[in-house]
Amino acid sequence: MRRSIVRTEQIAVACDLVNGWTVVEVDGELDIHTHALIRQAVIRLLDEGHRNFVLDLCFVPFLDSMFLGTVVALTKRIRKCEGSLRITCPSARTRTVFQHGGLADAYEFYDSPQEATSLAPALDGLAHWPGSAR
């Protein structure tokens, strides 16, 4: 069941459970003003027992390096919980930000949430993360 977890004038965040994944859909710009809202929302979900995440950035027109730091911090928490993280972002601009931040090879990117959730989570969900066993 889809539920809204953050709603402000700048950003809306909803989550849904699909095939063992917690899909966190973000709608709005991810910058210095909104990155902490995403961090807090995912931490709450981790506290509720969610472990395998798809961060859906399909409706994000802009993200900055501050948000990349948030993704790294969340990845570390998810990894400690033996979870996994996939990112959906069809925008070439969004993927370029991850490339410039040196994170393009650390994550699995998908064009849609449907593609990212087509297979149930595996134990090696963060296999590309630096320091992970391959």
Q: How would you portray this structure in words?
A:
The chain has 134 residues and is of the alpha/beta class. It has one domain: STAS domain (Transcription Regulator spoIIAA, 2-Layer Sandwich), CATH 3.30.750. Helix content is 31%, strand content 28%. It is built from four helices and six strands, in the order E-E-E-H-E-H-E-H-E-H. It has a six-stranded mixed β-sheet. Helix 1 links the parallel strand 3 and strand 4. Helix 1 packs parallel to helix 2 (65-80). The radius of gyration is 13 Å and the shape is globular.
**CATH arch. level architecture:** 2-Layer Sandwich
The helix/strand class is alpha/beta
So what's the overall shape? Answer: globular
What is the residue-mean pLDDT, rounded to a whole number? 90
* Continuous helix count: 4
Strand order of the largest sheet: 1-2-3-4-5-6
| Total number of domains | 1
- Major sheet size, sense and barrel closure: 6 strands, mixed
Quick summary:
The protein is an alpha/beta fold and 134 residues long. Helices cover 31% and strands 28% of the residues. The protein contains 4 helices and 6 strands.
Give the topology.
Elements: E1 3-7, E2 11-18, E3 21-28, H1 35-47, E4 52-59, H2 65-80, E5 84-88, H3 92-100, E6 108-110, H4 113-116
Parallel strand pairs: 3-4, 4-5, 5-6
Antiparallel strand pairs: 1-2, 2-3
Features:
134 residues; alpha/beta; Transcription Regulator spoIIAA; six-stranded mixed sheet; 6 strands; 31% helix; globular
